[in-house]
């Protein structure tokens, strides 16, 4: 049994010291408050993890939607470009001088 890096002998020593310091009447109350605090941290951690996962999933969906839009735009541009007649322009004076 290893909790927080402490083995069973170390935990027993801590429990004996707590019993001596706080007494048998106060110890159960302290244990309850520590348990509630740990539960609160676990709940907050779980909520944070769920919110983080939700935001990451939402960003992934936005990226997928953006890729679909970009692909649609490219297809539309290809259709317009293929429907345009190709005109060969007269060579300019710059083109003639390179020969």
Walk me through what this model shows.
By secondary structure, the protein is mainly alpha-helical. The chain has one domain. The chain contains two helices and no strands. The termini are far apart.
Question: In brief, what are we looking at here?
Answer:
This protein is mostly helical and 99 residues long.
What is the fold's blueprint, element by element?
Blueprint: H1 8-83, H2 93-97
Please identify the oligomeric state. Answer: single chain
Strand proportion: under 5%
Q: In one word, what is the shape?
A: rod-shaped
Q: Describe the main β-sheet briefly.
A: none
Order of secondary-structure elements:
HH
Structural class: mainly alpha
Instruction: Please give the number of β-strands.
Output: 0
Into how many domains do the coordinates divide?
Answer: 1
Average of pLDDT: 76
Poorly predicted spans: none
Radius of gyration: 35 Å
C-alpha termini separation = 86 Å
